[in-house]
Q: What sequence folds into this?
């Protein structure tokens, strides 16, 4: 049984926005496009980690000639932060999937244990019934052996009586 959990969380994401200026514009920078970097807040509601993202800017750092904004190291650092945020989000998604799988496995194991306990209970009942039947059969066997023994004694006596009767008759016929 898979369990679907919805998790709503805020995920930061960096976005580089290019703004083009005409050459006649007084604010035209030395490179072909002015860049501003926005930190975008992304809210995700994920049943299985694959939901659409909705972005809303929370802060903006325009490129107003700041030396740090022009630095390649600054851009690399922002890219690394963005990559780290995405990595953390994917780790969190994986963690949620693992937890959901663990919960489903736990539920399945509990269900199987319940069924197994019921089967054990039924088998124990059948075992007790088998022991009762076996005891009854032992008693019947003992009674049958006792009757067979008594019958054998009677047959032995009848055989002896018949043999003595035939022997007496033979002796009477031989004497006569």
A:
């Amino acid at each position: 049984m898979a369990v679907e959990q919805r998790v709503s969380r805020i995920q930061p994401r960096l976005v580089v926005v290019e703004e083009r200026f005409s050459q006649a514009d007084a604010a035209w920078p030395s490179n072909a496009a002015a860049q501003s970097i926005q930190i975008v807040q992304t809210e995700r509601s994920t049943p299985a980690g694959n939901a659409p993202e909705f972005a809303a800017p929370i802060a903006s750092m325009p490129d107003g000639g700041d030396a740090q904004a022009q630095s390649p190291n600054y851009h690399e650092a922002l890219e690394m932060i963005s990559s780290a945020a995405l990595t953390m989000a994917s780790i969190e998604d994986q963690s949620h999937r693992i937890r959901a799988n663990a919960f489903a496995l736990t539920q399945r194991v509990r269900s199987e244990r319940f069924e197994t306990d019921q089967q054990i209970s039924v088998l124990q009942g059948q075992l007790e019934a088998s022991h009762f039947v076996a005891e009854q059969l032992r008693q019947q066997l003992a009674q049958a052996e006792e009757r067979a023994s008594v019958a054998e004694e009677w047959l032995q006596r009848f055989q002896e009586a018949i043999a003595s009767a035939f022997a007496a008759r033979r002796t009477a016929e031989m004497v006569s």
Residues 20 and 33 are 5 Å apart (CA to CA).
